[in-house]
Specification:
Helices cover 9% and strands 42% of the residues. With 186 residues, it is mainly beta. It has a single domain (21-181), classed as Jelly Rolls, CATH 2.60.120. The strands form 5 sheets. A 6-stranded antiparallel beta sheet has the order 1-2-3-12-7-10, with no helix packed on it. Bound molecules: manganese (II) ion. Manganese (II) ion is lined by residues 86, 88, 95, 134, 150.
């Protein structure tokens, strides 16, 4: 692959005229602890929860995959809009997130049960260590926009989180984000 440059809009996260991949509420079944609220909200509208701009980078160990994601503000019940979250298929691969706009949290946990939460705010870079599943959560009132880069062949394991969930959840209590144990964690 030859060197190249791409432009990302710092406000919106958009990448030129490319089209994004989109995740709607209907694609988030089983991800929120309050499935009843999800059903009720779906009867009203299948809202766009997040979208991302990814490149078709060759999945080679020496290449980097990078792009942007935009998570919209909102909640399902008391739980904020968030990404599904994933491990990398090659567990031994890290990732860097760089927040451009908005306010949020990056929730991470590894298979030993260690977990942590780092703040996503404009200018913050968060290092997702190898072996950690990661989920980004919009705790603010504006879109949460961030850039990311990881080893291009790392791949995504969504299934483990879809089946087990994260150990922790971020919910709103008295108008502020609070980290609680996931009652449905397996
Ligand atoms: Mn990742």
């Amino acid at each position: 692959m030859k060197p190249f440059a791409l432009h990302f809009d710092l406000e919106t996260g958009k990448c030129g005229t490319r089209t994004s991949s989109k995740r709607y509420l209907s694609q988030m079944k089983g991800m929120y602890h309050d499935e009843g609220s999800l059903q009720k909200q779906l009867e009203v509208e299948d809202t766009l929860v997040y979208e991302f701009y990814e490149l078709d980078m060759p999945e080679h160990a020496g290449d980097l995959a990078f792009g942007t994601s935009i998570i919209y503000p909102g909640k399902v019940g008391d739980e904020y809009y968030m990404t599904k979250g994933h491990f990398h298929a090659i567990l031994n691969t890290a990732e860097v997130y760089f927040c451009l706009q908005g306010q949020g949290l990056l929730l991470m946990e590894n298979t030993d049960g260690e977990w942590c939460v780092e703040e996503m705010a404009p200018g913050n870079a968060v290092y997702v260590s190898k072996g950690y599943a990661h989920r980004t959560i919009n705790t603010g009132h504006e879109p949460l926009v961030f850039f990311w880069a990881f080893r291009a062949d790392a791949g995504h394991d969504y299934g483990t989180i879809e089946t087990n969930g994260f150990r922790k959840l971020v919910v709103e209590q008295a108008g502020a984000p609070v980290i609680i144990d996931n009652p449905n964690w397996k």
